[in-house]
Amino acid sequence: MTSADHGVVRRVAARVGLAGNPSDGFGGAVLGTIVPDLEACVAATESDGVVIAGPHGSEEWPSLAAWRDDVARHGVVGSQRIIVASLWTLAAHVRRNNSRVADRSGVAVTWHTNIPASVGLAGSSALAVGTIDAVSACWGLILDRRVCAALALSAERDVLGIAAGWQDRIVQAVGGTVLVDAADMGEMDGVSVPRVHVLDGTDVPTGVRLVVGWRSDLAASSDHYHAPLRRDAASLAPPMAALAAVARAATASLEQGDVRAFSNAVDEGWRIRQSCVPLHPDHAAIVEVVRASGVPATTPGSGGSVVAVCADADDVRRVRGVLDSAGCDCIDFAMSGNDR
What we know:
Ribosomal Protein S5, domain 2; 2 domains; globular; eight-stranded mixed beta sheet; 340 residues; 41% helix
């Protein structure tokens, strides 16, 4: 992340869930990490009015009040709705909690991203976190990482009506490997936040490489997967508790330097998830083709993507070859903790 005289820039990486998802949306726990080569970039600069400019166009309002009135009248619509929803949520939070900046000038927001859309790598939440983080800093506010994530979650869930959980936003707001435990909630700055356990650089064993693959032609809104699950929340309580236990075990294995136990937990999480809340068959097939090669793998989220846990260079080559044959784009990187 960068701060400069001309504004504030925030770069927010894609994320992959490793174990436990989607139990974070059901009071469970998820272990996730970031994908350093895929990111959303949001820049915020002080302005008399409000400007939101992205790859496909720009929108302008003469003042923050005019922007608020327009959104209140017409709703959050258009191709930049995730940016609008995030700014709306932040502005409301500021007005509730910080009168010093509640009626300040507006902001100019510009953004772009190379995170593939709607394949399960949290591209929309990266933009939400980036917008809230950049604009709050531009306005002179310092947000707790959990509060930043909570506002991003509210933008998607409460403003846009998208079924979503804690994992994406916490992992992306922290920017590292994190256990998000929604079974232990607290309050910060007037919003509810989960317990967050951040793994630092000494907690993640060296030599563990992850391969992430995806097929953009299988893109689908995560809401198509998550919304029906929320309607069956009561019946899903036992398997979600089991998934949360796997996430906590996977975290403990990493901290103990037991790569095999960690890999087994990732694989076990996939089996539990498929037994109770299976992915669309086309999406699941990408995971299964990697697992058939003998390398532990799971879904990073809820779309057409996969994350494989590789013990050595041979595993990486094997997985990349399998994914290439399956028509997937892919990248590999060393799993790391948070050293900030």
